[in-house]
């Protein structure tokens, strides 16, 4: 049981609440406050491990906080979906890793100051920083599991708290901070810290390597092609790409440099083709199934990518389709079930014009087909995502009837989940699949057929995804992050 009467020792931050009219200065102060809190907890934790826990004492540091207070209904550009608050009042967000999010914070804070003409306030928040997250970047310190140390961890330090680790803001559940302030950003600091730790665990790469454009796939074949493409880009100084990071944080800048793959691969091997401005491409092999798709997107969302796209394989449902044809999803039949509690199935998940156009143009560019001729190899329609990989082995009457009524043209297990979570987290999303089997027409994915399919299709499918992302990279953010993904009451931050 926690000792509520213990003396609380914290870093001296009483005089560190300041107003800023410049985004760079505000971010610098956020970084200073965060570094002070982390240093304090690391020092006290190391001392406690070495000397034992002091009597009747708790050590506590707080996340820094960003706040803005407005007293009028500011006239903002109605075309913008972010960068401003809708009503007068106080808006705040707790901040973690301001080093990792520096560019994002400068951009969002700068828009707030510009659009409202008032300063932002930076100071310590009321939310304690869990010691686990404070020491995460210090490889010399390891937090022992409960019972493994000589003291009860929760009696001396704050630990992760589910009351501040949730999706209430993005799910629209009316979250406010302890002092009544409305949320300024879509995630609390502790929710972000939790996901950063999960990202490192599931992908075996540091979140710092993630780029703003994320491709998801469900086959290792795409990874091999991605590495080959990355090496070609590193050999071309005009490409704008600076390095390639493989699973295990192995980073190369020389296109001929060897990559030693780890003996034990993580659950979701991840690779990054980086640019200096962060607008490169990350490829995540999420494997098969909606659970993996939800897990990956739940956590990557806190990095606030500018787009994510699924480029995987699917079952073609129409007799007119051929193996290797492309499917551009413009609607989703959601039978994956993993997001039903967060985003009810009655919520429509619309296609986003900017993503759709980028993908269609990329298909035309890579295949050298256009207009009516493009219809020979690509269909646009509904993609159904199920949670049962072996649905073919059950009675077909029910599933086939639903698929037919929905006008579905393809079936997989991940695309609807990725699109639905993109909708939920306000991350622009899209899906371009490749038909690898046609179970309703006797063409099952058998080894020999699959081998030939992979040889001919994976390379250009991946290239299409990359070309689409490069198009989106050159698009103004205010156009890509449009109002279609925003609800009645939105956070000012993307």
3D structure, described in words:
The protein is of the alpha/beta class. The chain has 2 domains: 10-199, AMP nucleoside phosphorylase, N-terminal domain (amp nucleosidase, domain 1, 2-Layer Sandwich), CATH 3.30.1730.10; 204-483, Rossmann fold, CATH 3.40.50.1580. It is 32% helix and 20% strand. It contains 12 helices and 18 strands. It has a 5-stranded mixed β-sheet with strand order 2-6-4-5-7. Strands 14-17-16-15-18 form a 5-stranded mixed beta barrel, surrounded by 4 helices. α8 links the parallel β15 and β16 (378-386). It is globular, with a radius of gyration of 24 Å.
Secondary structure: elements and pairs:
Elements: E1 7-9, E2 18-20, H1 23-51, E3 57-59, E4 62-70, E5 89-94, H2 102-116, E6 120-128, H3 131-134, H4 153-156, E7 182-183, H5 189-203, E8 213-217, H6 220-234, E9 241-246, E10 250-252, E11 270-275, E12 281-285, H7 290-300, E13 307-310, E14 313-316, E15 326-335, H8 353-367, E16 378-386, H9 397-405, E17 408-412, H10 415-425, E18 429-437, H11 447-473, H12 477-480
Parallel strand pairs: 1-3, 5-7, 8-12, 8-13, 13-18, 14-18, 15-16, 16-17
Antiparallel strand pairs: 2-6, 4-5, 4-6, 9-10, 9-11, 11-12, 14-17, 15-18
Helix pairs in contact: 1-2, 5-7, 6-11, 7-10, 8-11
